[in-house]
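This part of the workshop introduces the protein records we will be handling. A record pairs a protein's sequence with a compact description of its fold. As an example, a complete record with its sequence and its structure tokens follows.

_____
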Amino acid sequence: MSLLLDHVTKRFGKFMAVDDLSLAIPESEMFGFLGANGAGKTTTFRMILGLLDPSEGKITWNGKRIDYSTSPQIGYLPEERGLYPKLKIKDQIVYLAKLRGMAKQDSLKELVYWLERFKVPEYENKKVEELSKGNQQKIQFITAVIHKPKLLILDEPFSGLDPVNVEQMKEAVLELKESGTTIVFSSHRMEHVEELCEYLCIMQKGRPVVHGSLKEIKRSFGKKNLVIHADYDLSFLANSHGVIKARQTAEGIHLQIAGEKTAEDIFKEIAEKGFVRKFVLEEPSLHDIFIEKAGASYE
């Protein structure tokens, strides 16, 4: 089962929200969408869900167009909250699960599992408005996964969560992936996509500027990062051959370099000058790649 987007375009009047997007999202994988606000991520999700029709192109899940018949296989966590504030959590979840074709007993059993999993079993009979924003987010997540969807779409799942809850949510998402769910999620936070996804797409103004496997994207980027800490001034390295960018820090210097040969040359150069406490060659970060490809800082 894979999700295919074939030359998908979406216009609102003269505004092009998504521009000729083609992607294959593999089964049981986690696929990340990155992009600033207005890049076209949420519009793409709404088309995948069948809530919006593409202006051109087509979207298929397991070879079929997505419609009401496929909705029990799909879960969606929207960026904006969609829970009823005055309704008890138990009643709300049972009702939403029923819309997905679940029997009441099954949905109650799943609800108990997830509330315990998130360490909030006492919330079953609370109203949504009585919960903090972070805990509302957990309940919203439960509504998206209660029916054990095969395809799960998460729009900014970690927004509004403190670090402890982010870790809890990440573990839950990874558990679902291990059980065979295909997960597509968007995030403003590059480190979340970098940590969780094997495949990704960076969008800018409705177009994919980078997409493919994370390993391949990093490998083809070519440039590397070099972090050096030493007990003497390293600022002279900014002018070394093969150094593209340099940023001084309290402990030393961070360099973006052309490749491993540059790192070798720099090591020879500094080894004679004194004690080096740290010399680490790192893969480029997604942030580096985004700035290069999209021509602007991600924030």
Notes: The mean pLDDT is 90. Residues 3-218 form a domain with the Rossmann fold fold (CATH 3.40.50.300).
